[in-house]
Amino acid sequence: MAGYYHRIDAIRNAANLKPVLGWRESDSVTAIPHQQPLPAPDVPLLALDTLWFQVAGTLCNIECTHCFISSSPTNRSHEMLTLADVEIRLAEARRLGVRDYYFTGGEPFMNRDMLAILETTLKQGPATVLTNGMLLRPELCRELRELFDRSEYSLDLRVSLDGFDAESHDAIRGKGVWERVMKGLRNLAGVGLNPVITVTEAAEGVGSAEGRTRFLEVIRGFGFARPRLKVLSLFRIGAEETRSHGYEEWERLSMDGLTPVDAATLQCSSSRMVTSRGVYVCPILIAEPAARMGETIADTLRPFALRYGACHTCWVDGVNCRT
Amino acid sequence: MTRLAFIGGIYSNYPALVATLADIERRGVDGSWFLGDLGAFGPHPNRVPELLIEKQIPGIQGNYEESLSSGATDCNCGYTDPRDNAYAQISYDYTAANTDDALKQWMGTLPREIRMDIGGLRILLSHGSPRRINEFLWHSTSSEPFLERLCEESRADVILCTHSGLQWHRRLERNRHVVNAGVIGRPANDGRTNVWYTLLTVERGEVSVEFVPIDYDHQTLAREMRAEHLPAEFIETIETGWWTTCLEILPAKERAHSKF
Question: Which chain B residues are closer than 8 Å to A226 by Cβ?
Fold first, then answer.
């Protein structure tokens, strides 16, 4: 029954947060156990718009209890990418007409090449960095601001929080993290950069309209007069599987196929993820060997079968990791 | 030389449309087109389509015309933030309730795209992008390789679009161009009350683009919006030139120039 109630939560959250094109409440019934289950549907790659880089690998300066790829100071499942690694991928992405670039980890600013990587990327297209905010020292913020100003394309930052206050945040991210992030956010505000604050549903109540309003007030309190907020779904894999529980057997997609409109709502129809180990279908599934689609980006320009529990979350919640 | 005028989202801004058409007439052009989203934001949504029909100006469907003509319950604007969607819904509900059925039917007859050949250049008019009616194409997030791909896939040398609300032009290799014509429905979020339309000139195969600022009687518009009980936030935008709503969709770079 726990799974059942979770599904209801997911449907409610999807209705509140993500009334995406093509999403229908009735779609959730596709997950109900079937006498003879239909196969996992294939998602075509409609267009390669977004390229992700696991730029810090799975290395992070903290160890969040909800991390779907279990990043930590010692997790070397995926290594950091060098500037040269990124340049090779950018050259291929240019030929393929990629629109924009996202950098994540682990903690991207642990990568010593990060500023050079951004500088190079921004000559080709817009870039977004997902950070925990702990390393946003005044000098780095100044350099990011200069890069922001001199780039024709947009440089955006996303800083993750996990609660309305130090207690709830640090329960997930570790003791003293809130205080360091606050310093980082003040440094960003000080140079006039206005990040998107992302918060997962692990933060109690943030999924509701009331919770969002409250969170926007919290962000204003950090010194951002124009608060930007994105609420993220939780994926019950990696560390999060231990913190809550994994996916139930029925939390798999089984259906005849997807219409192009349905497929367009899924980010795997328009993005791929580069790590030190190759090119994966999406930012969520890099711990799954079968989600590695090839060595080059060109190898991955083909459909992917939505066979994982996390795919179920993406479908039901209408998840898109893009801003 | 061929000179063409393109009018982006009008958002029921009737006085801006009157002023724009007068400016176009004064300059003299070889043709004018509207690029969709005739309604939203402003008051009395019948006036804009009625005037376009009367003046026999051709154009394409925006997401608004698609939604209104199909009886949809929302504008399908493509916003992702609940704050943007909440204001978009106010606009849509007002517009849907105040647009005549005959005009909604007419909107359903508009094409999704228009193609033409001007001096050997393939010109394509689309609302959001050639591939999606509600795609936001912003200057700071539309990379050149991506726009090259859009031109290639849509078999066009010049793509014109609107939808995002801010005008820009990217000149690509091999004499290809992508032009966001801006909108005349609300100001360009720059603290000035004027709106913008676009002139495109083709001369001996060379393309040039001019964004034309249009001053119009925005105070009358604001008064009419008040009389229709439209949100004070919308009226503030018309009176100040700063966007107050539907701006969470802005990329970081465009947002940095924004007051709100």
Answer: 255, 258, 260
